């Protein structure tokens, strides 16, 4: 008779133990799921960080490219300025040469004028001498 009374109690205890074990297993599964979710979140965060880093790198590269382009433009401008200066110098040299040529032409004209003038006077003197000799 005592066994009949204890048996349902033992069965109840076993069922309670099984329920507790099931609850523990469920809690463990929930914990595992939470851990997995946390890991996934961490992975997502890492991916986001990596993406941000990549974007930053791209931005830096773009900035570097822009800087390089600016430098190239500046160099081109400097070259253009140098070329302009050289052209100006060449023009100045040409002007000086022209002036020199003008001076030479003027000098030659003066020399030619004096030569003609001198010859004219020389011929006049000869004529006067001839005239005086005839008398």
Give a written overview of the molecule:
The chain crosses the membrane at residues 6-29, 36-58, 64-87, 94-116. Keywords: Membrane, Transmembrane, Transmembrane helix. The chain is an all-alpha fold and 135 residues long. 99% of the residues lie in helices and 0% in strands. The chain is built from one helix and no strands. The chain has one helix spanning 2-134. The model has no long low-confidence stretch (mean pLDDT 91).
Give the integer mean of the pLDDT values: 91
Estimated structural class: mainly alpha
Rg, Cα atoms, Å: 58 Å
How many beta-strand runs?
0
Element order: H for helix, E for strand? H
Please state the overall shape, judged from the principal axes of the Cα atoms: rod-shaped
Strand portion, in percent?
A: under 5%
Query: How does the major sheet shape up?
Result: none
Distance between the termini: 199 Å
What is the oligomeric state here? single chain
Number of helices: 1
Helix content: over 70%
Uncertain runs: none
